[in-house]
Design brief:
The structure is a single chain. By secondary structure, this protein is of the alpha/beta class. It folds into two domains: 2-333, Rossmann fold, CATH 3.40.50; 378-474, no CATH class. It contains 16 helices and 15 strands. The protein has helices at 2-7, 26-35, 73-83, 112-121, 134-143, 204-214, 237-246, 299-307, 319-322, 343-363, 381-386, 439-445, 447-452, 464-469, 477-517, 533-541, and strands at residues 102-105, 126-131, 149-153, 169-174, 216-227, 249-254, 267-273, 280-285, 314-318, 378-380, 390-393, 404-407, 414-415, 426-432, 471-473. Helix 10 (343-363) packs antiparallel against helix 15. The two termini are 43 Å apart.
Length: 543
């Protein structure tokens, strides 16, 4: 992708990695290819002899592909998990595997992960899954209707319904359910799955890890989601030690917070392989990427990450460095700063951010009070609907740029931008006649009534009657546009300020990290101007 960056200045900027090995956002690249008419150039490992495919080719018939930004957190996580698997159509030796290889999900409360497997590998694999009860199993079977899928019922840790076919799966993918602590641990001597140590009742995730390993055939691969604390909890130290010493744990990947089943909280992916030789564990820290959709979702992107020199986000940590007694399996402990590969890089970045703060200060509004507070007559959206100045569209209507969107869950009305984000959480879609109304003027002035409306439904969605009662000032189109232009500028400033605040917090975090690791000296925070007590009080008084 670096070649594309040189050829096309407007190509998306890298989101991580050093200057010699940049990492790009898959979501941004995909959107750029579509916007510029180059969708046929999308690289897709293993699809054709040239390594290219059309956008959407990875989706099964009847299930059109959606961009990463339109996926729910569970769908996005499933894509990431499945993208870590290698090509499964090849065999280790000629004649080694006659039937399609098996991919198992031992904790499929839904079909999201197995559906992602089917989207990537099609009919080149057989799907297997174990659901906790018949209700979940039947739902999974319906979702996988028409595919080669064997879905069985029971708690996989307590009653393994695939016990007779252990050590046969080519791949195992597992997003364990929220675990109840103190799970009944089976007897170690009676169950060969716990060969790396009997998991403590406080560590059910380590039971799932070993369950997945027990189902792998030689050189098979498993990808298991675990909470970040699994890598450091003292009760799991003996199991972590055994996994590292045996060389079966190949990678630990820290994910950003938006990439979890619930959309919140930090989790890791453990990549494990049965057999082969491994002298270390690859640690990958992707918590600093711009958005959850920027995490790689195709295997070629992971392959590039493994092969390149991405010191700020990934490196192979030798076994000797990991086995220090605690066996901490946390990527951030072993990786260098994400904002550059040297103190000079961090200094240059900080200087650029300081200049952006200064520019933002110059762009802040300069309030001008009217001589006499204006009193505008008001008009309801219902009246404007009757006069054809706006139209309340069906809720399933696809928003267009410039439409007014009333959102669910008590969120403020916004003007649609023509992006996939528009379609999330829609309560009502309002078509605006821009020859009579300014959309940004309408969106801002209806907020008071929209947020004050009593909402009785569980989704926090305004009804059509609620919308019709919202009021705006009755102004000429020219006056509306004056307000609309001001609102647009303030929205841009708000967006820039939010992003700049996030980057500033990251710089402060990185400086603290540098001080604690010895990469920086205390002089890094001086002799610049400090925030004294009086200044802090003034800042607090403005918020």
């Amino acid at each position: 992708m670096a070649n594309w960056r040189r050829r096309y200045p407007e190509f998306p900027q890298p989101v991580a990695g050093g200057p010699n090995s940049p990492l790009f956002s898959w979501a941004a690249v995909q959107q750029w290819l579509v916007d510029t008419g180059k969708a046929e150039q999308l690289a897709a490992e293993g699809r054709t002899s040239t390594g290219t495919q059309q956008l959407g080719d990875a989706s099964p018939p009847g299930n059109p592909d959606r961009g990463p930004t339109a996926l729910t957190p569970p769908e996005l996580l499933a894509r990431v998990v499945v993208s870590l698997l290698p090509r499964l159509g090849d065999t280790d030796r000629p004649g080694d595997e006659v039937d399609p290889p098996v991919v198992l999900d031992p904790a499929c409360r839904d079909a999201i992960v197995l559906t992602a497997v089917a989207e990537r590998f099609g009919d080149h694999v057989r799907l297997a899954g174990q659901a906790p009860d018949e209700v979940h199993a039947e739902a999974v079977r319906r979702s996988l209707s028409g595919l080669d899928a064997d879905v069985r019922v029971g708690d996989a840790l307590q009653a393994d319904r695939f016990a007779a076919s252990r050590a046969t799966a080519r791949a195992v993918v597992c997003i364990p359910p929220p675990s109840v602590r103190q799970w009944p641990a089976p007897d170690l001597a009676a169950d060969p799955r716990w060969r790396y140590g009997l998991p403590d009742p406080a560590d059910p995730e380590l039971a799932w890890v070993q369950h997945c390993l027990g189902h792998l055939r030689p050189r098979g691969m498993a990808v298991v989601m675990v909470p970040a604390v699994t890598g450091v909890r003292p009760s799991g130290r003996h199991v972590r030690d055994a996994l590292v010493r045996a060389g079966v744990l190949r990678a630990v990947i820290a994910l950003p917070e938006g990439l979890t089943p619930s959309g919140a909280g930090a989790v890791h992916l453990w990549v494990l392989q049965r057999g082969g030789v491994a002298r270390g564990v690859r640690m990958v820290d992707l918590t600093g990427v711009g958005a959850a959709a920027d995490v790689p979702q195709v295997h070629a992107a992971w392959h590039a990450l493994w092969a390149g020199d991405h010191a700020p986000v990934a490196r192979v940590v030798p076994q000797a460095e990991l086995l220090d007694g605690e066996v901490p399996l946390v990527p951030s402990r072993y990786l260098r700063a994400r904002f550059g590969e040297s103190v000079a890089d961090l200094g240059q970045f900080t200087h650029r951010v300081a200049r952006l703060h200064a520019k933002l200060g110059q762009a802040l509004p300069r309030p001008v009070a009217p001589g006499v507070p204006p009193r505008f007559p008001e008009v309801t959206l219902g009246e404007l609907e009757r006069s054809k100045a706006l139209t309340i569209l069906p809720r399933d209507a696809t928003p267009r740029a410039g439409d007014l969107l009333f959102r669910t869950m008590g969120r403020e009305p916004v003007v649609a931008r023509g992006t996939p984000e528009d379609e999330r959480g829609i309560a009502q879609v309002i078509g605006i006649d821009t020859d009579r109304l300014d959309p940004h003027f309408v969106a801002r002035f209806v907020r008071t009534d929209a947020l004050a409306a009593p909402v009785a439904n569980t989704h926090g969605a305004l009804t059509r009657d609620d919308v019709r009662r919202c009021r705006i000032p009755r102004l000429t189109l020219a006056e509306q546009r004056r307000y609309g232009d001001a609102f647009r500028l303030l929205e841009q400033l708000e967006m820039v300020a939010d992003r700049l605040a996030g980057v500033t917090r990251a710089i402060l975090d990185q400086t603290i990290y540098g001080l604690t690791t010895g990469a920086l000296m205390p002089a890094a925070v001086g002799p610049g101007e400090t925030i004294d007590t009086e200044t802090d009080k003034k800042l607090r008084g403005t918020t």
